[in-house]
Amino acid sequence: MLFETGHPWITFKDPSNIRSPQSHIGVVHSSNLCTEILLNTSEDETAVCNLGSVNLAAHTKP
Fold this sequence. Notes:
Layout (H helix, E strand, L loop, with lengths): L1 H4 L7 H7 L7 E5 L6 E4 L21
Antiparallel strand pairs: 1-2
């Protein structure tokens, strides 16, 4: 329901980096909209997270 109303999602960078299982890859600088996916970046790379959905009923036969 909150995502339908434009409610902000807040995450904190330091605790996210402390708890990241991928700390050996780099620093978490961003996440997707709902903050369940944390994205590591570096000076050479920018991470992006594209979310999508598929209506299976439109692609299957009854």
